[in-house]
Amino acid sequence: MGKNTPPLDHPGKMKYIGVHLFNELRWLLGAATEWSIQDQLKLKIVGYDMQVYCLDSAALHARTLFEFFVGKTTDNYYGCDQFLGAGSVLKSDSYQDWISPLHSYLMHAQDRSCPRSLNTTDGPKDLKEMPVYFAREILRLWREFEEQIGNSSDPTDQELKTLAREKRKDAIEDAQCAVNSPVAQLHAALKLQQLKPVFVFEG
């Protein structure tokens, strides 16, 4: 623990999940959903570079959540060991493959003329094609986080599990608003396309 990461009591953990983690998840899912909408519609309107903005946002929020789920608490940010016990973090083989390109993309103005492909369940993908894959892996980790908290018999941990599940559901429902927005639906209608939810809540 450091001066920026003091130990969290139960109210602190509730706030951290309900406010801070939820904020990261809702904007990740929203950005990934809007990125997918733009990818489907292929509007290519000059000056309306929404897909690029969504990629930036999704990558940033995904990086923050990956650090929480797979990393231990440091002087500067919390890891999920704050909730699961000392040394307990989750594992993501996908993130281990993605971590270097993701961090380089967000933190450094490097030469991007020959980017490395990232491995996905659908084969190698360029970083600019990754928002939905990032979000799906975060949702998998979030569900595992819920399950591990729920393994405890402590009633306060059960309360944390319930809150985490509710916030996952809220974030998915918020992301659906991007699909249902008048702007997205108008462009879809003009192109005779039907937009579908990108993420579906699984209890």
Write the layout of secondary structure elements.
Elements: H1 10-41, H2 50-70, H3 81-84, H4 93-107, H5 131-150, H6 155-180, H7 182-190
Helix pairs in contact: 1-2, 1-5, 1-6, 2-4, 2-5, 5-6
Any overview of this molecule?
There is one protein chain. The chain is an all-alpha fold. The chain has helices spanning 10-41, 50-70, 81-84, 93-107, 131-150, 155-180, 182-190. It has one domain (10-190). It is globular.
Give me the secondary-structure category. mainly alpha
First-to-last CA distance:
33 Å
Q: How many helical elements?
A: 7
The structural domain count equals: 1
N-to-C series of helices and strands: HHHHHHH
User: Based on DSSP secondary structure assignment, what is the total number of beta strands?
Assistant: 0
What portion of residues belong to β-strands? Answer: under 5%
> What is the share of helical residues?
55-70%
For the sheet with most strands, the description reads: none
| Mean model confidence by pLDDT | 93
Shape: globular
Radius of gyration: 18 Å
Which residues sit in consecutive blocks of at least 5 with pLDDT less than 50?
A: none
Q: Concise description?
A:
The chain has 203 residues and is mainly α. Helix content is 63%, strand content 0%.
Output the keywords.
single chain, 203 residues, mainly alpha, 7 helices, globular
